[in-house]
Every structure is written in structure tokens, then in C-alpha cells.
Inverse folding.
């Protein structure tokens, strides 16, 4: 068995139940406690920039979980993340969230079809009364697909729990022609950036 490249210096709580985020941390040897935020996500403010909104959501999740944990004797650090699919049209920007049903999923897929959009993941790290908010943005280019292919994917049910109605790490991988930037950012956690920030904060260290 290969040695893990990192080790935790204190407990780490992931404010998300996303199996993809959990898997990213496990892949580098970090076994985090899973504690999703119970508070409702804040709503976008009028005219708010999508990236600013994503950062605000990540911060709200992290602070909520940190408050729920209280003054635990083992002083865990909390890591929260929020991912948004952003479509920019004519100078404006729109966040495409999780579709409510198959019909809305198909509508989103048709809008993204053959076009380039952005995927932003913002993170908030909270420890010892300190807070670090950071983000990363990748560009995703969809190939051009016939409506029948989009309809079949929408019917599969896979898009319903995914922002923008697709998952690059699953059955929706065929949709994507190119990713410019971090693949892990598109999936839901900019792993390289998160690891560097946790190293700087003294939350983890390289393996011995």
C-alpha cells in the first residue's frame, strides 16, 4: 500500500456530505469527519456577482458548522465548499443550480450545449477563530450534441442532484470536450489550492 502524501495535525471536519469531496481528501490520506451544514443556503443578492455569492455560501456553511461544533476540546478545523455553474450571456452572468426536474435539466443542457461556461468552487477554512476564504474558476467547453442525446441523459436521473444538470465525473463526462483549469474544481473541490491553504494554516503536514 502506498504511503499517503499528507497527514492531519488536528481533526478536520468537512461541512459537506459530497462523496466526491470526501473522496478527494481520502485520496491524499486525509480522513475528515463529515458534518454537513444544517442551515439553509443564503439567497443571491440583487446584482450579486456569482463568484462573490459562491464565496458567501461557502463561508456561511463553514461558520454554521463551526458554531454547531462549539468549543470542542480537540479544536477541529472546518472546511466548507460551494460550487456554481456560471453561464455568461451578453455581459451578464447567471448561476445554473440543481434542476428541479427532468424538464428543467434538459433546458439547462440545451443552453450549455456546444458552449463554454465557467465552474467556480469557493472554499472557506475556519480554525482557532481564524477564517480563510479562497476560490478557483475553471472553464468547461461542451461538445455539440443532438437533442436526442441530451434527452437520454436528462432521463437518466443523473443531472437532478448536480449544479448545471451534469456531472463530469459520472455519466455526464461525454458532454465535455475540454476543461481549462482544475478538474477537481469542476467536480467540487480545488484540491491543490485547499491543500496549500491547510498546509499554510498548520492544519496538515507532509507525510513523514
Amino acid at each position: 500500500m502506498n504511503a499517503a502524501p499528507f497527514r492531519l495535525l488536528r481533526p478536520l471536519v468537512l461541512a459537506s456530505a459530497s462523496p466526491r469531496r470526501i473522496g478527494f481528501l481520502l485520496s491524499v490520506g486525509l480522513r475528515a469527519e463529515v458534518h454537513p451544514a444544517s442551515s439553509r443556503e443564503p439567497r443571491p443578492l440583487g446584482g450579486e456577482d456569482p463568484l462573490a455569492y459562491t464565496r458567501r455560501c461557502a463561508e456561511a456553511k463553514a461558520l454554521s458548522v463551526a458554531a454547531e461544533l462549539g468549543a470542542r476540546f480537540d479544536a477541529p478545523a472546518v472546511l466548507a465548499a460551494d460550487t456554481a455553474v456560471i453561464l455568461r450571456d451578453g455581459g451578464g452572468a447567471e448561476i445554473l443550480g440543481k434542476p428541479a426536474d427532468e424538464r428543467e435539466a434538459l433546458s439547462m443542457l440545451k443552453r450549455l450545449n456546444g458552449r463554454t461556461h465557467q465552474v467556480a468552487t469557493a472554499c472557506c477554512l475556519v480554525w482557532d477563530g481564524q477564517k480563510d476564504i479562497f476560490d478557483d474558476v475553471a472553464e468547461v467547453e461542451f461538445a455539440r450534441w443532438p437533442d436526442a442525446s441530451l434527452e437520454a441523459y436528462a432521463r437518466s436521473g443523473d443531472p437532478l442532484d448536480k449544479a448545471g444538470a451534469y456531472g463530469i465525473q459520472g455519466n455526464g463526462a461525454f458532454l465535455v470536450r475540454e476543461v481549462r483549469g482544475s478538474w477537481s474544481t469542476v467536480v467540487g473541490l480545488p484540491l491543490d489550492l485547499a491543500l496549500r491553504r491547510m498546509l499554510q494554516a498548520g492544519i496538515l503536514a507532509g507525510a513523514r
